[in-house]
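A favour between colleagues. Tell me how you read the following sequence-structure pair.

===
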Amino acid sequence: MNTLPENLKKPLTNLLLSVADDKLMLGHRNSDWTGLAPILEEDIAFSSLAQDEIAHAQTLYELISSLTGKSADETAYGRSADEYRCATIVELPDDYNWAVAIARRFFCDHFDLLRLKRLSKSSYKPLADLASRLHAEEKVHVQHVDAWMVRLGHGNDDSKQRLQDALDTIGPYAPMLFEQVDGEAELVEAGIYPQLENEMFIIWCDDLQQVAQQSGLNLTLAAPDADAKGGRRGLHSEHFAPLLDEMCEVYRLEPGAAW
């Protein structure tokens, strides 16, 4: 379909915001590594991937704009904190710990790959077309972070322990990536957010465990609590407000300005 029924516009907006907000915050956090990555080659690569996340978010905000009538910039920067739908894991500071930055991307990139795969099969053609392109680009993100997982896991005792500690620390936040947005069940039923061949959480866990085993690392993942409420419902950590203030500082000086 090329035209979305009115009753599905709000649920789809919520879902797309969860994707775009995750990517915007993750890209913003990872951009902090520009000039600080462990090696020059990775400085360029990590910065490029951070920029890629922000570019993905922009294209998603533009699609949201077609549903809401608000501009992409207003959607990205003009909301209150409780209107953002990002998961807590992308809000957390990594405190310039490379292992934490890699561990977070490991969880998020594999999740995004599956989420975009589902969206690429959407019955809503504008969404399917966009998600298909982003899904192809997300594969590069996953290949990159998986290579770092193996590299650090087999580096030396110190690199392996640092990465294991990072996985243990940030891993408990990862299942909340699966928190549903309001109206998600309606989108699944309408084929706008179709299910995969198996439960998404199971596929995600299997993919992560395979890489962890290749890296000589231990990974414990608990199924998400169906009753838990967090970022997808606008409930954020104490780290979110400062992050949002920093990110929106220029926009708030003159909303709507053309640069």
The chain has a mean pLDDT of 94. The first helix runs from residue 9 to 31. The two ends are 35 Å apart (CA to CA). Residues 61 and 76 are 7 Å apart (CA to CA).
